[in-house]
Design goal:
Layout lengths: L2 H40 L7 E9 L9 E6 L5 E6 L3 E6 L5 E6 L9 E8 L2 E6 L4 E12 L5 E13 L8 E6 L4 E7 L5 E10 L5 E10 L7 E6 L5 E6 L3 E6 L7 E7 L7 E6 L6 E5 L4 E7 L8 E7 L7 E6 L5 E6 L4 E5 L4 E6 L5 E6 L5 E6 L3 E8 L7 H5 L14 E2 L10 E2 L2 H32 L2 H14 L4 H18 L1 H25 L3 H4 L6 H27 L4 H9 L8 H25 L3 H9 L4 H30 L2 H6 L17 H8 L8 H35 L3
Antiparallel strand pairs: 1-28, 2-3, 3-4, 4-5, 6-7, 7-8, 8-9, 10-11, 11-12, 12-13, 14-15, 15-16, 16-17, 18-19, 19-20, 20-21, 22-23, 23-24, 24-25, 26-27, 27-28, 29-30
Helix pairs in contact: 1-15, 3-10, 3-12, 4-10, 5-10, 6-8, 10-12, 11-12, 12-15, 14-15
Length: 740
Amino acid sequence: MDKKFLQRIKRRDRVARWVITVGGMAIIASVLLILFLIAQVTFPLFQRPKSQLAGQISLPTGPEIAAPLVTGLDEYLESTFVLRADGSLQYYDLDDGAELARDQIEPPAPGAEVVAAEGLGHLTYGLSWSDGSLTLDQLKITPKFDGAGKRSLERELHRKLSFPPLAEPVRQALGRLDSEGRQTRVSLLEENRILVEQQLVSVDFLGNETAESHSATLEEAAATTITALALDHQGKTLYAGTGNGLLLRWDLRELGSPQLLDQVQAFADGRKITALGLVFGDISLAVGDEKGEVSTWFPVAPAPGEEKVLRSIHTLTKHTAAITAFAPSQRDKSLLSLDADGHIHLDHMTSERHLLGFEAALPLQLFGFAGRGDGLVAMTSAQELLVWRVDNPHPEVSWKTLFENVWYESYEKPELVWQSSSASDDFEPKLSLTPLIFGTLKGTFYAMLLAVPLALLGAIYTSQFGNARLRGVIKPTVEIMAAIPSVIIGFLAALWLAPLIEKSIVALFLSFILIPASFVLSLLLWQWLRQREGLRKIEKGYEFLALAPVLVLAVAIAWVLGPILEQLLFAGDFKLWLFNEAGTRYDPRNSIIISFALGFAVIPIIFTIAEDALSNVPTSLKAASLALGASRWQTVWRVILPSASPGIFAGVMIGFGRAIGETMIVLMATGNTPIIDISMFNGMRPMSANIAVEIPEAPVGSSLFRVLFLSAVILFIITFVLNTVAEVVRQNLRKKYGRF
């Protein structure tokens, strides 16, 4: 052979080898880059929150200066303010600590001073005055822009409500104004009596106002000392804690008729409850005690149909001293707690994460949370204001909320739930990935349950028993099935197949019995008929021509008998019987639908690869087996299948990966219900469909956005692990059964 020709061949081989190597490495690098990019979006979920001291302001002190009672921040973190006992409101710049302005809250009576203040959120405060009156005052801070586009903050005091003085001494007073105009004042009097005053002002169509007033005294806790009170923002539920660990709850919705709902011994050792506070949303109650423990409670029914009672749900980070005050976030379920030693903890209720701790050289006394939850101001015992900037983007995400049972508000028990959005702002995000992982595996299982037997049996018949001309028709036809867009399959499954099966579910189950039975009976009959010389010719690769009418007839019989059996066995309604007897609902888009739809999409892949592997087994092995006296089936079972097992296994695993990653079919045909139920009559929500549903509405950078990318990482890892295990198994099969 010409040497130049050989050199040219070798040179081309080297070039081809380098091109293939570079291309393969580029593909691997691209896959790793994709994994890196989606993991990069996910990584901030697991970063610890951060805080940074942004300012220190020394307040003026002296005997002539009234004591500070309230401190807070504007939502732009540009200024802080201090409310003093004389009703003066002073604003300070965070950059240089200079006093910006000063306002005076008008007292309800001349000479009255503020004796206590309660933060109600959104810079609204309930102020108790020395004359026994109570006012609700709000500080409004709005941005203003001049002609040059420069922004400034405009501050305005607004009195929302004023309650008249009481004739007797008041230990603590709480006031509320709900969205319907109902006014509620709760006053803790001497001897542990609680006075509830309510007034509803209504306006008729002529504009005339009518006031309906009621008052009632609560004496259920008179035998002990009330140490803490809390009232929800609508003034409809009142909580009280006592010195011996008793927790009480009243319903104030009926004017003038408070109803005691709970009287619970919160702690077995009877320790003192020192602070109460409502978490954002007014469903959960934060309880602090003299040992520094913080827990959250909300009503739960002990059993279905019974009245709800308060129950301890979450336990947050313990303090070193008694809890003195709470401040909830106005954005999520985060909660600030202050103890008697002057330490502040920031925890998230749902995830039970300890987010941050704040402390200073001197004990902290007063504190306020910024409206956006990104800032904290606290005053030390030396009347120095400390301001922290808080970076806490994903407090609700933890390993527990993603993969473990969590007890959510208004739920009867801890559950695995995915529910990313709601109509209310105080929604508690439920971002458990476990139902989505389960849905992915469930949909794949039911799809493979149908696809694997049909694809493998079809491949065995086509390659080993079918006629060559038959193979030339069947294989291209099945391969064309793979070219059908998945959206078309999902569309047909949702709008045509699902209603059809819903109407004929009993007929479908009956066909699962009649088809195998008719198949076995037809084979027995065929063994008798094949003794005739004329029928033996059909056996040479065209047996299905005799079998197909039998299978069609079995389906037709099942279709006819299905309604009759449903009427006889299930009173004409299988779905109602299923719900009454088994407690299972029939979802029209269920696992049966997904097994047909997704199985239809997976069959061509498994069939093609398995058929190629079976056809590539050397004919010498088959001839040797037949020559030794083995039957055709014995040859297939003992020789062909083991030799082709690496390829068959590879086809099954590729089909498995195809089923796991499918999006459009499962999106349209599963019902998208993120529940954990193995029943074939219920739907599911796989991770791929969940990403397609949620990602268009997820704000970029939000917890939902990053959790969706985390689910993509998990899907990637599952596929990678499956493919790796499949390759290891395939290589072991190749070593055992040779190179085929």
